[in-house]
Design a protein that fits this description.
Blueprint lengths: L7 H4 L6 H18 L1
Organism: marine sediment metagenome
Protein name: Transglycosylase SLT domain-containing protein
């Protein structure tokens, strides 16, 4: 989402660029690891 513009992730979830999908997955995994 950092490179796709504010709100676009919510408005167009099926059209995310590959880089954005990878970024979201990576950040989510880091968050889960830090939380446990």
């Amino acid at each position: 989402s950092y490179n796709w513009g504010m709100g676009n992730v919510e408005r167009h979830p099926g059209r995310l660029p590959r880089e954005t999908r990878t970024y979201i997955a990576r950040v989510t995994e880091y968050y889960r690891e830090a939380k446990s």
